[in-house]
Amino acid sequence: MFVRLLKIAAPALVLACSLTPLFGAETEEKTVSLSTQDGWALSAVYRPASSQDKTVVLLHDLNKKKEDFSSFKADLARAGFGYLALDLRGYGQSTGGGEAKTFAKEGVDNQFNKMTRDVDAAMKFLQKKGVTPTETVLLGAGLGANVAAKSVSFWPDVSALALISPTTNNRDVLSIPAMRLYKGDVLIAAGAADKKMFLEASVIRNVSFLSAGEGKVTFLTAYDLTSHEMLDKYLRPALIQWLKTPHKPEVLPDPKLTPDPIPSDGALVAPSQTEEALVPSVL
Q: Which of the two ends of the chain, N or C, has the fewest CB atoms closer than 10 A to its terminal CB?
């Protein structure tokens, strides 16, 4: 009897072993090329989600490239999230219209503003892979943060937006107009040592709160560093946790314990209770 069972089980065991590398290969990072509507071929790396339902589109800062997300990509993979990191037009291995150092720094139609078309190409690539906008998070650092913010004008159903060192204006890519309308979860991180950037990030935070509402805006801060450097040193664990739980569940107040509201006379609404600060904090 034992010999007979072994003979039956052996083919199944062989089949299972032969399929294991195939399933593993589905979640390996692969180099891909994204085509934009205006003729750019963008170099990117893609890894499908394994145990989570979200895929993060990674948009780098000025004078950076997709490899500058290496540490965070590893964190995403360990946590089971998918990612698509791309070289924005003019950077890294992307080709089609010269280098970013030749781009006009001003103008609402300059190549930096057209980077929203790079995001468009990324979103359409993910859709072909079966990843919907509601399963997608846009994460940008510096210039990439502004591009991510502007892109939600075209992709308002994106589930969440993470902005690392955003500003109100970076190479004439404006962040606030789209944030006035975006209703998804938002994380904003800014280093307080750069006072101008920190102030502008705080303004974006307030605009996001007024649009998205209570419990959907998270603000992180650390004293030194900005952009990719702040991400690598301080933010990676906090970002992974935020991706898992981007907002706190709504808690209905007890009418017996809730005081009468105080008229604000048009004053700015207080920041969300989800806000938290990394040590050291200036908030």
A: N
Cis peptide before 271 (omega within 30 of 0): no
- Residue 58 · residue 72 · CB < 8 Å: yes
Calpha distance 25→28 (Å, rounded)? 5
pLDDT in tens, 5-26: 334 444 444 334 444 333 444 6
Chain centroid, CA 259 distance in Å: 38
- 8 Å CB contact between 141 and 227: yes
Q: Do you find a cis peptide bond into 280, omega within 30 degrees of 0?
A: yes
Instruction: Please count the other Cβ atoms lying within 10 Å of the Cβ belonging to residue 184.
Output: 22
Averaged pLDDT for residues 60-80: 98
CATH architecture designation of domain 33-244: 3-Layer(aba) Sandwich (3.40)
For the entire predicted model, the pTM comes to 0.81
DSSP 182: -
Phi, psi of 4 (to 5 degrees): -65, -45
Q: How many CA atoms does the CB half-sphere of 44 hold within 13 Å?
A: 28
